[in-house]
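Issue 218. Parser rejects a valid record. Input:
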Amino acid sequence: MPIEASATDNFPNLMIILLAGMGAYIGAYLNQRGKLRAIHEKLATMTRQQADIAESARVRWSKRSEVIAGVYGKLVSAIRAFRCYLSPATSSTDESIKELVESAKDFDEYFATTALFLPADVEAEIRWIADEFLKAYSHTTIFLPREGDTDRDAARLHNEWKAKEFSRVQDNGDIGRAVATVSKKLRRLVED
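Output the parser choked on:
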């Protein structure tokens, strides 16, 4: 006669099945939890990176705006200095030349150290203006009459060059138009 198994005899088998099921459930739960933790960590990392990129962009934009404003101000000061020096009403004294040189040098040095922050087309236009400022300076000081100099030809040549360069820095001259064009571009860059 067969022996009937009692409920207590099947208990160990039932426990094994129950523990195996719980182990599978807990394993799946922990696996899912690990995946979620990894996703949260990745999102946190990406959020920090995005914040770093945004901050970097803000700093770059701030620096670029600062540079553009600086170039604009120094360009305006330089063109004013050239217009003042080249004006027929201004005599070519050492003091007037010194003021011109200081303004032009300030503009040129600032531009040279910050040109990298400017768009390539604007940089090229400003470089052309800086070169033309140098030419205007050279043309008007090469025949500069000195105190006590009686050579009227040198004075005449100096005044002719000053008049020629003065017309170039006026609003309708090539340098004046270039400065106006670049000034508009610089303003647009700050507004964008």
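Fixed in the parser; the record now loads. The mean pLDDT is 85.
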